[in-house]
TrEMBL record:
Pfam families: DAGK_cat, YegS_C
DAGKc domain location: 7-136
Record's keyword annotation contains NADP: no
Documented EC number(s): 2.7.1.-
InterPro entries: ATP-NAD_kinase_N, Diacylglycerol_kinase_cat_dom, Lipid_Phosphate_FormReg, NAD/diacylglycerol_kinase_sf, YegS/DAGK_C
Name the UniProt record assigns to this protein: Diacylglycerol/lipid kinase family protein
GO molecular function, one term: kinase activity
Swiss-Prot/TrEMBL keywords: ATP-binding, Kinase, Nucleotide-binding, Transferase
Length: 308
């Protein structure tokens, strides 16, 4: 980390998603506000009821306006198109449930003091992944994401974990969602190409395309990812049964799965994935319906981070 005598920033637009962390952001906001004032960090508060409302405001911000998100990964993901290559730098205050992207940057969930201390560091650029859905519910649409997407089992888990008890921590809810999804396990033929070359073709239950290392609040699906290396990482399963899937999940928790024979993982710059029939998709942890084929391209250094 480099300390810098950076020129003063113009006032932050603080984007508060009071729903994030199942109310954690709302509960912590008074203390965070007091801390911003104590540190004489100038800001304008923008509390929004939805990502759409946040986007409408983001469009009106002058280039160069620093943005501080108070929430989880979904709060950042919602406004990403207005941060990427826009000159609007981002500071993340991780007050969501999973905070996977913030965790990857080394920010501790709930610890806004440390997140504010890090504003003294030199800004650093991070890569963003650009998704183009070819066939599926979002056919023809492009999406940007910071952390990663998953197709198949992990997207089903993502849907199931929303039904887990709200008071549980993110990792426990992910594990619960995973166990309830295991009984619906089914394999579908998939074809994955990386940088124009065949990479994996065969039955699979999940394929993830990652910029960050983890999702689900701690499942380290792609431990070799680095959001600053100009690369994405693909992780696809081969044909596995339920018992192997449980074992694989434990290996993912320990980040020891990448060298296993039925796990196919590689870095790249561009990936295209085509399933034989539609399969569940999540993008940065948000349910994105069903997909049959999509492409993902890395956009190196596309967003400036102020406290990474
Ligand atoms: N700016 C916003 N204002 C209000 N609601 C938002 C905003 N951005 C996103 N949302 C909605 O709030 C939900 C929760 O936000 P977020 O994902 O940040 O928190 P979380 O789910 O608790 O944390 P994490 O994604 O890190 O697990 C999102 O799924 C989205 O539907």
């Amino acid at each position: 980390m480099t300390l810098t005598s950076r020129p003063p920033l113009s006032p932050f637009t603080v984007l508060l998603n009071a729903h994030a962390g199942r109310g954690l952001a709302r509960r912590k906001w008074p203390a965070l506000q007091a801390e911003l004032e104590r540190r004489a960090i100038p800001f304008t508060l923008l509390e929004t009821a939805s990502a759409d409302e946040a986007c409408r405001h983001m469009q009106t911000l002058a280039p160069g306006t620093p943005v501080m998100t108070v929430g989880g990964d979904g709060t950042v993901a919602g406004i990403l198109p207005f941060l990427v290559e826009s000159g609007r730098p981002l500071a993340v205050i991780p007050l969501g449930s999973g905070n996977d992207f913030a965790g990857m940057l080394g920010l501790k969930p709930g610890d806004f003091g440390e997140a504010l201390d890090r504003l003294a560091y030199a800004p650093r650029a991070a890569d963003v992944l650009d998704i183009h859905v070819l066939e599926g519910d979002l056919a023809g649409q492009r999406r940007l994401m910071l952390n990663g997407l998953g197709m198949g089992f992990d997207a089903q888990v993502n849907q199931a974990m929303k039904r887990a008890p709200a008071r549980w921590p993110g990792l426990a809810r992910y594990a619960w969602g995973a166990l309830t999804s295991i009984r619906h396990l089914h394999l579908l033929p998939v074809t994955v190409q990386v940088d124009g070359q065949p990479f994996y073709s065969g039955p699979s239950c999940l394929c993830a395309v990652m910029n960050g290392t983890r999702y689900g609040g701690g499942f380290r699906i792609s431990p070799r990812s680095d959001a600053r290396d100009g690369l994405l990482n693909v992780v696809a399963s081969g044909p596995i049964d339920r018992a192997e899937l449980v074992k694989l999940m434990l290996q993912v928790l320990a980040a020891s799965h990448l060298d296993k024979p039925k796990v196919h993982a590689t870095p790249g710059r561009h990936v295209s994935v085509r399933w034989d029939s539609p399969i569940a998709l999540h993008i940065d942890g948000e349910d994105a319906g069903m997909v049959r084929s999509l492409q993902v391209t890395v956009r190196p250094n596309a967003v400036q981070l102020l406290n990474a």
